[in-house]
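A note from the maintainers: we've had questions about how concatenated examples are separated. There is no special marker in the raw files; a new sequence line simply starts the next protein. For clarity in this README we add a label.
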Amino acid sequence: MTPLQLLLWSVIFYAVGGVVSLLFKRQEKLAIYVAGIAAMIGGVLGLCSSIPVLMSGEVLTYLSQGPFPFANFVVRFDSLAAFMVMVISLLVTVSALYSLNYVQEYCGRGAWSMGFFLNLFIASMVALVVMDNAFYFIILFEMMSLASWFLVIADQDDKSIRAGLLYFFIAHAGSILIMIAFFLMWRESGSLDFDSFRQLSLSPAMASIVFLLGFFGFGAKAGMLPLHSWLPQAHPAAPSHASALMSGVMVKIGIFGIIKVGIDLLGATQGWWGIVVLAFGAVSSVLGVMYALAEHDIKRLLAWHTVENIGIILMGVGVAMVGMANNMPVLATIGLLGAIYHLLNHAVFKGLLFLGAGAVIYRVHTRDMEKMGGLAKLMPLTATAFLIGCMAISALPPLNGFVSEWYTYQSLFSMSHEGTFIMRISGPIAIVMLAITGALAAMCFVKVYGVSFCGGARSEQATHAREVPWTMTAAMLILAAICVILGVGATYIAPVLANVAMSLTHATDITVAQGAMLVPNSASQAMISPAMTLILLLALPIIPLIIYMVFKGKQLDARRKGDAWACGYAWEKEMSVSAGGFTQPLRSMFAPLYRLRTQLDPSARLAQTLEVTKEGAGKVEPFWDEKIIYPLVRVINRIAKRMQCLQGGDFRLYCLYVVAALIVLLVVIAA
């Protein structure tokens, strides 16, 4: 079979699995297995279709008239699309394996419908990244948003419905901006095919308008600041395997869209576009990790880290756009390589962390880290996989997070001593913000792992926790192994991803030197030698083991002979550091960035009015929602109330509107 045929069969399996899941409404366990196994087969077929295209770099196309005469059905399976299909299929395969046991807890609560919406969600993502026509792209984008919305509200409680409503509004606001951007390009080209958009020669002003519309439209889906409000609420509300897909791959559709519009369709012709992307990425990365530190809800904390990592990816994309605009192909390629490598890495380690969090919740039945503790002894496989995920997201060598962040650093260093004054200033600022992000991320995951898995149990449920079923542990261990492979095997993986980057930046004078470092043909640099990689890999288990062996006896003696200054009761529980205490100094230092949370109330009365209610006095929320998002909601609400007078119920008034509209149209035509 050709790659396109395999891709078609992949989408068919997703669709059939979802539809069959609906048919087994009364046999939910069977529906779970049908949906999960179909998704696994679809994921494997997706991998088989994408890897040959990714390795060869060829572009496969399919064109047909389609059911609508104004829009051709165009499929373009190029390197970027193959890369996205590979990332989606990889995480789908593992998450589907995980779901076979995890979703059993949803029996009696609509598990059959969950299988349908999850498979529809996956199918729409896969089809979207290969679609090369604006009309079908928007339809698939809306399918993806609606299917994921049903997953967000799966629990049908107040929190999930509130989160779903906010997600619904922001996602569709972004869709409107994307539609306007595509409409402007259609008006200039006369066709909805992306290939016609690529041939356009837009004026600088029009190109900038299209770019900004696409950037903010897709940025809302990516969850970048300040369009992030839905993400920390929607991702925790969804089931954990759906959260892994939403955080691991769905937000990357936003990144894909920014690359598609800014680089592929518009060619990144203006340097300030890249500076804007870089700035939003830098702010998102720092504030995302800072807000994550203040969270006690493990899934909400991981969702904030998605905002952080989206910022890191955007920094690489911004550097690439700056390099393309200034005719610096090496800089553009390294920046884009860092972005797409981190896109892949984030999908793997964030998927692993969400699945690990789901495993903990599966046994402890709470998302509050203060009620966990001591789980490493009771859930050793989950703890091991989760630890690897924590190390990977903290960018510790030689795991995958380190490699992609290194490329991002390298691109920023290159930008700091080349090009215009703005480039030389922006580079060092971004480097400092990326360094702060890395330090805070390491601190945050020391807190997460220490509070959740170390020490003593902090609740009755944590005391009786045990390892999760084998399908769940197998899924987590597979992703943990991939984290190691993507880091240690960077020498072999980076050249493949570099070809994807070069296909977009149109660079030709770049080679791959030893250590997977992209350099011009005339230069000679190296990243990390294979020998150093091996040493770092061996150090991962050996150093913690040495520390454990040295201090093991002393810890036991202290436990037996220590003074009973904790009254002799529950010393591990009472004297251990809490999640709140761990980050209290940081929250005090950056108090201006935090304030009490106000939340949009998505009640049934929202059709008449939007009310903002204060709740959760002990919860912490960044000021973006209070200062930007909610004031906009209130302004729109006031405007809508004043416009209600236009609909007075008087038929004569409506006739007047029709006449006035006709007069305006005649004047426009005459002019």
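[label: protein 2]
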Amino acid sequence: MSGAEAEVAVLIVGGGPVGLTARALLARWGVSTLLVEKHAELSPFPRSRLVNVRSMEIFRQLGLADRVTAAAFAPEYGRVRFRDTLCDEDFATAAMVGIDAPVPESPVIGVLTSQDRLEPTLLAAADGDAPLRFGVELIDLAERPDGVVAVLLDRRSGEETRVRARYVIGADGANSTVRERLAIATTGPGAMGDFTTVVFDADLGRWSARQPAGVYFTAHGSFGPVHPEGGWLWFGPTPGDGADTDWSGLVTRALGAGSGSGAGAGVRADVRRVQHWVMNAFVAERLRHGRILLAGDAAHAIPPIGGLGMNTGIADVHNLCWKLAGVLRGWAGPGLLDTYATEREPVAHRTLRQAVANAQLMVQVLERRRDQLRSGAPAQGRSELPWSERYFAQLGLVLGTAYRSAAVLDGDGTRPAPSERGTDTDTGTEADTDYVPTPEPGHRLPHLWLADGRSTLDACGEWFTLLTPDPAHWERQAAAPWPVRIETLPAEHADRCGLGPHGALLIRPDGHIGARWRDPSPRGSTLRHTVTAITGSTPS
């Protein structure tokens, strides 16, 4: 083991989309990081494939949305289709809301893309001041009063090094070493089965070009296009003899093309890659252990049906990184980090419930189809979907999350919301079907267009934003040492947000409303007291 200890503000363990997003966010705050990833390179595999509206809003904040979109599929691929085999016609279909077309509640549209296209964009988002070491594995960590000492193993050279970090983000996946070292248990269904993804080439245009989709669910596994320029994937339960499986033959038969006759005659899958994986479903019992915080799959493993897992992890670090930056830069107290778990744990549990429900809904569609065919119904007959046209009923979950913690003030910015209210997200019905924009504290700031053509969401960044129809009133209130910007809110939007002529919304750096004043009191320290309460800092 090398003698000298390297020092860094934040050690990020895990180089997937969540860890890379955390690195990019912290770089914007000027926080020094080191990211270590045990694999030798970025993922060459097209795993997580849906970037939802909320994640695209975060990437827009990072200046990455256009680049992510440029490498993604066209919006018409934002749809799921159900077929008996890929070669058959649809018997049911549904849109991915916010992916297939813009929604008025956001300035962006989500995209269907592959993780192997997303990760290089995220990697390039942070400069050379944010080093990344591939092929380096965390093997031990110990918390000290002033930081965390991590032991890292270079898997190529065998050399061990020590790094002292003020804080550690564990974003190292469902089989997290960080979580294991901390002996943090998990709750939930756990492992839901062994699955395999096969990437292959085949000429399938005659069954997909006219009716594009991100996913085609069939009774013989699911199919999806990999990249706009070509390639396909199949995923399904791993056969009992997975090690000896003829994957080309299995996928070819699943296509409905293996019989030598019929619609799929002559088509064969040319296999490129095979990956085995476990479908996990759990939430960690704790997201924080002192100076060590879990995010992404390390904190919550979400089944992939509905595309919620990666996006939930991206929202995790968007919530966390501004809090870490505030503590490290001295304008927030350490207690602000307590609100990370208070705010994100309920989201993780609710998302897990929705993802499990999504999987059950998918099974229901296939079971209804089998019943339909057994009853002698025409093969080309349609099946009624057991959910609304809002793709797997989740738009409210994606945009409607509300936080209840000490970092949100209720009423007119006067009373901290009690932390015990953070037992669930305040998003309406259990199905999270609908999203209704609201200016209530704790909710994501509604998207409204400002006079200069920007969205209200574009006013958020590495600062607190005060949106008000009367900037002059608030400019008299010094907010130093906190980063605060004042933006003019058009009068028509002020009415929609329930603000009087001198009212204001205080927006946290993660785009959630921290406080609202319909009509502020004449006290000149209103803003200072509020930001002090939200950040848990000691006013100077």
